[in-house]
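Backbone-to-sequence.
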């Protein structure tokens, strides 16, 4: 375990050292530096800019770890919510904690409700992927044939409600999900 911990810390250190305090500024700077370069100058600029295969592999290692952290957030988030959500006579019929739906329609089904959970921190801008996922989950909840209550749990309602009350075209929202678009059109 110590080797994995050391690898993780080395990856964090390498990425942090490369990006500095402001990733956006660093990326913009690299774009400016490489603008107008040829193959020969680009090779030189890679070395001068600290762009290496080691940095790429360090970032990739952190991404793999981040994927596991996202699953943990989903699992722990749902489990911590359960005692606060369940009513006195309510019983869990199934609980989907991992990624994907493993043949189940939603994250949670009880004798009283079906529910989806999303633990996404929305940004002030550029939430297209989040909006698409939220719409899909809400649509599937709304169309699910049950008399149980249908609930969507989110971390914060401000940005999701802004999207849902906005004017983004439904074709745009479903543009990357042909099956959803077809189901929506059929319905």
């Amino acid at each position: 375990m110590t080797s994995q911990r050391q690898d993780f810390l080395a990856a964090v250190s390498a990425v942090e050292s490369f990006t500095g305090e402001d990733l956006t500024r660093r990326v913009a700077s690299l774009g400016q530096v490489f603008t107008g370069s040829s193959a020969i100058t680009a090779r030189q600029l890679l070395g001068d800019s600290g762009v290496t295969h080691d940095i790429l592999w360090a970032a990739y290692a952190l991404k793999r770890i981040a994927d596991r952290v996202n699953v943990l957030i989903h699992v722990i988030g749902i489990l911590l919510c359960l005692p606060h959500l369940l009513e006195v006579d309510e019983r869990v019929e199934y609980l989907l904690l991992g990624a994907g739906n493993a043949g189940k329609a939603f994250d949670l089904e009880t004798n009283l409700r079906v529910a989806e959970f999303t633990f996404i921190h929305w940004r002030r801008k550029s939430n297209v992927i989040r909006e698409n996922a939220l719409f899909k989950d809400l649509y599937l909840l709304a169309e699910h044939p049950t008399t149980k209550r249908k609930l969507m749990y989110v971390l914060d309602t401000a940005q999701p409600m802004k999207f849902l009350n906005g004017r983004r075209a439904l074709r745009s929202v479903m543009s990357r999900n042909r099956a959803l678009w077809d189901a929506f059109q059929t319905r």
